[in-house]
């Protein structure tokens, strides 16, 4: 089993014919992902990468039975693309776009929730269930199928953690890159809960960073609801100066509980196995699964 995406997912690409959509859709198709078409307004009826192009998401869903969308639409129009996908009945909406205006995302976030869809991102690397479906921009060759779930705010650390796990002879069930913007659809806690409840995930790697309360909320949920599945945690940004945005728009220390040190303390208190370097992730996972 997996979470969010699998070999049966039918994916459409919004922003299909643009340069980013073209490149990454090609990579997804090459990986074996079932990309059933794409959406670019005004280009409906054409074919791109051997797949049909539609003017609207609702038309794409009607013609292909798509249930998952990945969005490469420019920031000014991405929130509308998210809401269009939700309106059309898409169940999982993965948004790669970075820099969507916060006011737009507040509107899109509320709309998606009302429609009962699952939004991942924005400003995220996507979701991958190895050897089944890659719906995102991650390098597929890094990932091997296994029983270690992965949730991460950071794209590059998602790949690094997967590589560390694979080097220990293990593999990934599903990796979820939740994104680093201030407003995201799926939180660390929600992603952790999905993986903890997945019967084929035996351990979860949770990667966070400075800023916000997402990791603390996830840790407290794990303490109160977690099973006997171990969680290995890492927080990036320990040396970042307070009050300055570092990398992601959401990565700014606003209070004493936002620091890496505070988050690691809370995670440890909640029973999470915290490592101080990403180089230790794979070793720690193998240790807790032994």
From TrEMBL:
Residues 4-100 form the CoA-binding domain. It catalyses: GTP + succinate + CoA = succinyl-CoA + GDP + phosphate; succinate + ATP + CoA = succinyl-CoA + ADP + phosphate. Substrate binds at residue 159. The keyword Nucleotide-binding applies. The active site is at residue 248. Its EC number is 6.2.1.5. It is an enzyme of class 6 (ligase). Keywords: Ligase, Nucleotide-binding, Tricarboxylic acid cycle. CoA binds at residues 17-20, 43, 96-98. Pfam families: CoA_binding, Ligase_CoA. The keyword Transport does not apply. One of its GO terms (molecular function) is succinate-CoA ligase (ADP-forming) activity. Pathway: Carbohydrate metabolism; tricarboxylic acid cycle; succinate from succinyl-CoA (ligase route): step 1/1. Heterotetramer of two alpha and two beta subunits. Succinyl-CoA synthetase functions in the citric acid cycle (TCA), coupling the hydrolysis of succinyl-CoA to the synthesis of either ATP or GTP and thus represents the only step of substrate-level phosphorylation in the TCA. The alpha subunit of the enzyme binds the substrates coenzyme A and phosphate, while succinate binding and nucleotide specificity is provided by the beta subunit. Belongs to the succinate/malate CoA ligase alpha subunit family. This is Succinate--CoA ligase [ADP-forming] subunit alpha. It comes from Robiginitalea marina. The gene is sucD.
């Amino acid at each position: 089993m997996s979470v969010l995406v699998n070999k049966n997912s039918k994916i459409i690409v919004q922003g299909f014919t643009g340069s980013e959509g073209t490149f990454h859709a090609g990579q997804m198709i090459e990986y074996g992902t079932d990309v059933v078409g794409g959406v670019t307004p005004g280009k409906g009826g054409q074919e791109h990468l051997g797949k049909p192009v539609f003017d609207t998401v609702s038309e794409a869903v009607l013609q292909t039975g798509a249930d998952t969308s990945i969005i490469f639409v420019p920031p000014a129009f991405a929130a509308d693309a998210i809401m269009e996908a939700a309106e059309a009945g898409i169940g999982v909406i993965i948004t790669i776009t970075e820099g969507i205006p916060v006011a737009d995302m507040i509107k899109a976030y509320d709309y998606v929730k009302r429609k009962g869809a699952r939004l991942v991102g924005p400003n995220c690397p996507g979701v991958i269930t190895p050897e089944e479906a890659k719906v995102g921009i991650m390098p597929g060759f890094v990932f091997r199928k296994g029983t270690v779930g992965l949730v991460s705010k950071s794209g590059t650390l998602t790949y690094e953690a997967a590589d560390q796990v694979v080097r220990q002879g293990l593999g990934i069930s599903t990796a979820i890159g939740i994104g680093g913007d201030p407003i995201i659809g799926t939180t660390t806690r929600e992603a952790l809960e999905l993986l903890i409840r997945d019967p084929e995930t035996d351990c979860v790697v949770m990667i966070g960073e400075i800023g916000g309360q997402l990791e603390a909320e996830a840790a407290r949920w794990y303490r109160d609801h977690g099973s006997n599945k171990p969680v290995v945690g890492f927080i990036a940004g320990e040396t970042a100066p307070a009050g300055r945005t570092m990398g992601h728009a959401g990565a700014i220390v606003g209070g004493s509980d936002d620091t890496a040190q505070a988050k690691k303390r809370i995670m440890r208190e909640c029973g999470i196995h915290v490592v101080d370097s990403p180089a230790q992730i794979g070793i720690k996972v193998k240790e807790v699964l032994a």
